[in-house]
Amino acid sequence: MRIHRQTRLFHRPQDLLDMVIDVESYPKFIDFISSVRILRRETLTPTSVALTVDVAVQYKFISETFRSRATADRENLRIRIEKAGHGGAVRTLTNIWEFHLLSDGSTQLDFTLDVALKAAPLQFLVRGKIDGAAASIMKAFEKRAAQICAPAGDMSQELRVI
Fold first, then answer.
1. CATH number at residue 94
2. pLDDT per position as a tens digit, 1-44
3. What order of strands is seen across the sheet that includes strand 78-83?
4. Which domain holds residue 86?
5. Which candidate, 53, 95, 113, 142, has a CA 20 to 30 Å from the CA of 68?
6. Do residues 10 and 155 make contact, with C-beta atoms less than 8 angstroms apart?
7. 162 has pLDDT over 60
């Protein structure tokens, strides 16, 4: 199941990247994430860091903890999250956040989520709900950004990355 969304956010790309890589805060503003535990933090280069984390997800009758690796590249304004380790209902997970600086200081966000579950019946049940879940996640991040990030950009201009 693959989702790709683009949206314009009226905050600086660096501030948004910092907010997304602050995984420990996720339980504060994403309803279905009950806990996040950082297992390892690595500095890869002066501008990139990698985190190995356990994320506990609880949604209706589904409760799952899975391990992922998040790599933040501040130079290229990009975060890549992938499933790490074995076990659990998630077979594969790749989530990419790309923050593009627009001419007015705002950001175009390219968000890609590609996930596959191990059990075919669960994959079938989730397939119809994944788009709504992605929209819910994006709304939660937009609301959080409005709370903690300084505003940037001009809402009266229609801008896009070319």
1. 3.30.530.20
2. 888 999 999 999 999 999 999 999 999 999 889 999 999 999 99
3. 2-9, 107-117, 90-101, 78-83, 62-73, 48-59, 33-45
4. 2-148
5. 142
6. yes
7. no
The total number of structural domains in the chain stands at 1
Tokens 């683009």 belong to residue: 6
Q: What angle do CA 43, 47, 50 make, to 5 degrees?
A: 40
Per-residue pLDDT tens over the stretch 109-147: 999 999 887 776 665 666 667 778 788 888 999 999 999
What pLDDT, on the 0 to 100 scale, is given for residue 124?
61
Q: Give per-residue pLDDT as tens, 60-73.
A: 777 878 899 999 99
In a domain, 154, yes or no: no
| Structure-token pair, residue 94 | 């790749």
